[in-house]
Amino acid sequence: MRNNVMTRTMAITAAGLMACAMTMTANAAAAPLAETQNGSAFVKEFNVDADTYAPVAEFSFSVEAGEAFEGEAAVVLSEGGQAQPVYAGVAGGVTASAVSFDALSDEKGAEQSGNPELTYDASVFTKPGIYHYVVTEDVTADKHYHFDTVARDLYLYVVNGDNGLEVSGAEMFKRGEDGAAVKPGSAENKNDTFVNTYGELGDEALNEFNDLYVTKTVTGDMADMNEYFDFEITVVSYEGERTTYMYTIDYADADMEDVTDGKLTSGQAMSFKLKNDDKLTVQNLADGDTYLVAESSDDFNQDGYISSCSVNGQDLDGNMTTAQTMGNEDVTVEFVNEKNSISPTGVVVEFGPYIAMLCGAGALAAVFMRKKTQR
Fold this sequence. Notes:
By secondary structure, this protein is of the alpha+beta class. It is 15% helix and 38% strand. The protein has 2 domains: 21-198, Immunoglobulin-like, CATH 2.60.40; 210-338, Immunoglobulin-like, CATH 2.60.40.1140. It has helices spanning 2-30, 346-374; strands at 34-35, 39-41, 43-48, 57-59, 61-65, 75-76, 83-84, 86-88, 94-96, 99-101, 111-114, 117-120, 129-137, 152-161, 164-174, 193-198, 210-219, 229-236, 244-250, 259-265, 270-274, 279-285, 290-295, 306-311, 314-315, 324-325, 331-338. Strand 6 (75-76) and strand 7 (83-84) form a beta hairpin.
C-alpha cells in the first residue's frame, strides 16, 4: 500500500515538474508580444511619401490555423532543451482586430503606427502546448496602398493557469522569400510589424501617382501678355481616400512669388489666376481621382479673344464643363486665348468696284492724252 502511494506521489510530482519545465521553457522562448487586456497586440506601420498628405485607411487581418510540427519536426526552443511538439492552431483560439488611420491635412510624409489586437479564447484548447497560427493582411484591390503580403507565423503558448488553461504569451515570425513557415525559436525572423506604404518611397514607385498641370498661353498681335485670367479647380479624391492635395504655381513674371506649398481640399473649389506662360501643378493624384478646371466665363471667348481648352493635346468643345478622371499618366490641361488685329477691309469691299472704275478711266485718259500729244 505504501509503495503504491509513493509510486503515485512520485508520478504526480514528475508530471508537475514536466509541466513546470514546459511552462518555463515556453515563457523563456516566447519573447511575448505586447500584452493587452484580452490578449496581445502587434504593430501596423503606415508610411506616406514626402510629397503626399496621408489618406484615410483601414487595414484588417485574417488568422488561420497553421501546420503542426511533431515527432522529428518538433522544435527545440533553447540550447540543450528538450524538443517540444507544436500543435496546429485550434479554430477560435485567436482573432485579430482591424486598425484604422485618419486622413491628415497638416502633415506630408507622415509615418503613422497602430496596434491591432489579438484576442485569445483559451477555452477552445484541451491541453497545454504551443499552437501554430498564420496571420495575413487582407488585400483590398481597389485601394491605392501597398499592402504587406508576407504571412506571419504566430505561436501561442498555452499553459495551466490558476483557473484552467490560459495563454501565457505569443510570438510572431515573418516568413522568408520561399514562403515556408518559420518555426518558433528563430530569432532572426522574429517580426511583429506589418508595413504599408502610400506613394513613392525609396527607389521603387510602390504606388504610382501622377501630376495635373494647368497651363495658360496667350497669343496674338492684339493680346495683352500681362493680363491675368481667372480659373477655378475642383479635385475629388477617389472614394474619399484623401482630404488634401498639395499644389504649386509657377509664375513667368519674375516679380511674382511662386506658390510652393499650397493646399487644395478634396471636393472644394479653389480660385486662382494665371497669365501667359504661368502653370499650376496639383501633385500626386491617384488613378480614379477626378478634376474639373475651367476658365471664368468672364474671360473665356470674351473681350475679342478666341479661347480653347485641351487635355493632353485633345481639344475639348469649348471650356471644361464636366469632371475628368485621372488615369495612370500625367495630365496637362492647356488653355489658349488668342487675339489678333482685324484688317480694315470693309472700305475696300464696299467701294472697291467704284475705285476700280476710276482707276480704269484714269488709265484710259492717260493713253488718250499720250496719243494726242504724239500727233
